[in-house]
C-alpha cells in the first residue's frame, strides 16, 4: 500500500469502516488493510509514522507476556498496546514458539556464521579418513596443474 492509501485507510477506520469495507473502497487487497487495521486499533493514527528503531525484548519480558496471554489475564491486543508492540501477531508467534519448543525457544539465538573452534586443523579420526582427505587434496592439485598447463599451452599459440 502506498502512503496515501494508508492515510486514506486510517481516515476510513476513524469514520467507522472496517478493514474489508476500507479495502474495497480503496481498491486494494484486504490482507494489507487488515494488518493496518489491527495496528491502528493498538496505536491509533501513529500507525502512519514509521518507527526507526526495533525494540528488543528480553527472555523474561517475552516469557511474562506469553504467560499473561495464556492465562487470559490480557488479550493479544491489550498486551500489544501495553508493551508497544507493532502487532499482536508478535505475541501469537511467541506463543507458538513456546508450544513447540518450550520457554527456552524464546531465548535469543546466536546470529551469524559460527566461529572456528581452533586455528589448528582437526586431525582425521581414522587412517581411512586421512587417506580420503589426502586423495581429495591430490585430485584438486592434479586438476589445478592440468588447467595451468592448458593455459600455458593456450598462451604459446
UniProtKB/TrEMBL annotation:
Q: Which Pfam families match?
A: HTH_28 (PF13518)
Per UniProt, residues of the Insertion element IS150 protein InsJ-like helix-turn-helix domain are 61-114
Superkingdom per UniProt: Bacteria
Which InterPro entries would you find in this protein's record? InsJ-like_HTH, IS150/IS1296_orfA-like, Trp_repressor/repl_initiator, WH-like_DNA-bd_sf
Which residue ranges are recorded for the region named Disordered? 103-128
Q: A single GO molecular function, which one?
A: sequence-specific DNA binding
UniProt record similarity statement: Belongs to the IS150/IS1296 orfA family.
What's the protein name? Helix-turn-helix domain-containing protein
Amino acid at each position: 500500500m502506498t502512503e496515501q492509501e494508508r492515510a486514506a485507510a486510517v481516515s476510513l477506520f476513524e469514520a467507522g469502516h472496517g478493514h474489508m469495507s476500507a479495502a474495497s473502497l480503496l481498491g486494494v487487497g484486504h490482507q494489507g488493510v487488515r494488518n493496518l487495521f489491527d495496528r491502528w486499533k493498538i496505536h491509533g493514527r501513529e500507525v502512519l509514522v514509521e518507527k526507526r528503531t526495533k525494540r528488543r525484548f528480553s527472555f523474561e519480558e517475552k516469557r511474562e507476556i506469553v504467560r499473561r496471554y495464556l492465562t487470559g489475564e490480557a488479550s493479544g491486543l491489550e498486551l500489544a498496546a501495553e508493551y508497544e508492540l507493532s502487532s499482536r501477531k508478535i505475541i501469537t508467534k511467541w506463543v507458538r514458539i513456546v508450544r513447540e519448543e518450550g520457554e527456552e525457544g524464546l531465548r535469543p539465538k546466536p546470529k551469524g556464521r559460527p566461529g572456528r573452534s581452533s586455528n589448528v586443523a582437526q586431525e582425521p579420526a581414522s587412517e581411512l579418513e586421512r587417506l580420503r582427505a589426502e586423495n581429495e587434496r591430490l585430485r584438486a592439485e592434479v586438476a589445478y596443474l592440468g588447467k595451468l598447463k592448458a593455459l600455458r599451452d593456450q598462451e604459446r599459440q
